[in-house]
Write a structure and sequence with these properties.
Blueprint (H helix, E strand, L loop, with lengths): L50 H18 L6 E6 L1 H13 L5 E5 L2 H13 L5 E5 L16 E5 L1 E2 L4 E2 L14 E4 L16 E5 L10 E6 L1 H9 L13 E2 L2 E2 L14 H17 L1 H21 L4 E3 L11 E6 L2 H4 L3 H18 L14 E5 L6 H18 L3
Parallel strand pairs: 2-3, 2-4, 4-7, 7-8
Antiparallel strand pairs: 1-9, 5-6, 8-9, 10-11, 12-13, 13-14
Helix pairs in contact: 1-5, 5-6, 6-9, 8-9
Length: about 400
Amino acid sequence: MTLALDAAPVAAKPALRPANPDFSSGPCAKRPGWSLDALSGALLGRSHRAAGPKARLAEVIDRSRAILGLPQDWVLGIVPGSDTGAVEMAMWSLLGARGVDILAFESFSGAWATDVVKQLKLADARVLSAPYGGLPDLAQVDPVRDVVLAWNGTTSGVRLPDAEWIAGDREGLVICDATSAAFAMALPFEKLDVVTWSWQKVLGGEAAHGMLALSPRAVARLESYKPAWPLPKVFRLTSGGKLSAGIFRGETINTPSMLCVEDALDGLRWAEGIGGLPALIARSEANLAAVVAWVERTPWVDFLAADPATRSCTSICLRITAPWFTALTPDEQAKAAKRLPSLLDKEGVAFDVASYRDAPPGLRIWGGATVETADIEALLPWLDWAYAQVCPA
């Protein structure tokens, strides 16, 4: 079937536009009311090891752990390489002591599986996989083994519905990539051992900096186990067999951007000012609820997440279900789907809402806490308008 992509428009443009058209899944929208003035107090031109800048770094740690409700006996540090760096640091430092299960159900969790199997080359590694839109069989996870998982699939819009399947008396460690979940979803720290995220997601910070949270069980593994492979400097979390405690007090392994640090603090203070974690979660869930209501009355679209209980409230992924679209070849589907975000971008009403390059063709709308529900609601009629331009008469 050949699609006439240049068909004439068949729907009027909506009158209302989102006040903020930034719906990217990373880096994400800045918090409401943000301006460059928020960074005027940044300690630029200073050594990050000086007392003032180091205190700012420690403040990021302290405010983050307070908002998230991190257990008192956990440690939290700022690490290089965004969330990717934090996950890689955890895997390279902790894995290999016992068998490991990896939950792979979208691009990034799939990348962690590739790293474990093809880079670390662990002999006792099981990849429990599922296609985009689903989750692996969680009952297969062995509590004797370590497990690597993403709490929320940034590229699939699928999140774990709960932690009931994680054994409270587990022997293995649970390494959790929470980059698009932290500050928007309640994380069950009692069932996790390593939690990572970046500044660029739910609080709208700048990229390149990651956060690494470790439970006492994870620290004990670090201090009792030495991997069989060499660790580069930016991955080393111990010295002389003991945890490098300074990393978790703001003494970063590499040089951070103090401009980004100031921006991270601005986002954290904003979060505190609106009511902390409950308010952040409520904002994200309200954004999802607005999209749910629209999908329920819109015949041409559905969620990529197959189970409503697993729909993400941050990375909201949609697929086109119209019969004319599903009858296309994969290449034709990809071409048609790409035209929707292109039209929205050209109109200036939504930037960066194409589905992830490895995901099924469709749309991905960020619904994290910095996005106003009013902007989501203003966007939805524009999605109908863009679809009408692409749909054959």
